[in-house]
Amino acid sequence: GALHLLHPQGALHLSRLARRRGPVLRMRLGRREVLVPSSVGTIREALVRHWGDWLGRPPSYLGSLVSQGGQDLALGAPCPAWRQQRGAVRVALARAGGRLGPLLWLQGRELCEELRSHGEAPLDPFEVFTFHTCSTIARLLFGDLVPPPGELRAFSCCLGELLQLWGCSSVRALDLLPLLRALPNPGLRKLLRLVQHRDAFVEAQIQRHQVGRPGELGSSQGSGAACPSPPPDTVLGVLLGCDSGARGAALSPARLHMALVDLFIGGTETTAAALGWAVAFLLHRPELQARLRVELEGAQGPPGPGDMGRLPLLQATISETLRLRPPAPLALPHCALRHT
């Protein structure tokens, strides 16, 4: 995941090596052998056709620090607890999916209002997109018990800084050169502070939603006090077992915590980046903006997640944006689970 940091030209250098040596490069980093697929065909062969063989994750010093020892889906190695966590998150997202359409419409209106409030003053749209994407995920996870906007905005800034720091060469080098871990590293110290902030926010939401559940410590049964509890059609409500229709064993506290972290990190940065690039491209294509406006104004009611079929130009614009600037992280390292 950090091979591009080994050379000043990064991925371009690996591409030149691939043209000379072939589409699969085999390298040795210390005692570790690394395979680098460098063509669309070899990448598709490994990560699509044989994806189950490459689900593993190699040991990572930084990955362990930010994932509570590999307790999340993105950086954790496949094991029974990991598969249970993945299944539980899938069920929770499916159960909460009915809230997504109205939620996106509400959040979209708030996003437009904030953008209009700036008037002609300059602004960084990526920060605005990051906050509203984070707010959308929070509403999907927590329902009406979403944290206050100020607290949520601080959390979204924390996520952005955390991901930016994690990508810094001075921090990523700690995975490649263990001897550097003995030296002072300001970037690592700041990264750990951001992880602490992230975890404190998520844990506070879990504790807040557990108050008032039957059998939970701190519940006020019989007291008549109104204690919050997660609605059963939210992601956290399903993961906490509030939805009787969703079956499955309860997740461990660490797995539950990191499942929420995964959803925030996996959804916030990627969606905000895609929106930012779409706006950047459309600024150079005013005629496309006009055509998109006509298509949206001609739609029957507000478009929802399942309405892309009747909005072909919008669908094409989104697809082209994702093709030109794919926001999904491609540098996550994979480890073979068996000989291939």
UniProtKB/TrEMBL annotation:
One of its GO terms (cellular component) is endoplasmic reticulum membrane. Keywords: Heme, Iron, Lipid-binding, Membrane, Metal-binding, Monooxygenase, Oxidoreductase, Steroid-binding, Steroidogenesis. It is a peripheral membrane protein. GO terms for molecular function: heme binding; iron ion binding; steroid 17-alpha-monooxygenase activity; steroid 21-monooxygenase activity; steroid binding. Its main location: endoplasmic reticulum. Coiled coil: none annotated. Its EC number is 1.14.14.16. It comes from the Eukaryota. Pfam families: p450. It is found in: Endoplasmic reticulum membrane. InterPro entries: Cyt_P450, Cyt_P450_E_grp-I, Cyt_P450_sf. Its cofactor is heme b. The keyword Nuclease does not apply. GO terms for biological process: hormone biosynthetic process; progesterone metabolic process; steroid biosynthetic process. Signal peptide: none annotated. Belongs to the cytochrome P450 family. This is Steroid 21-hydroxylase. The gene is Cyp21.
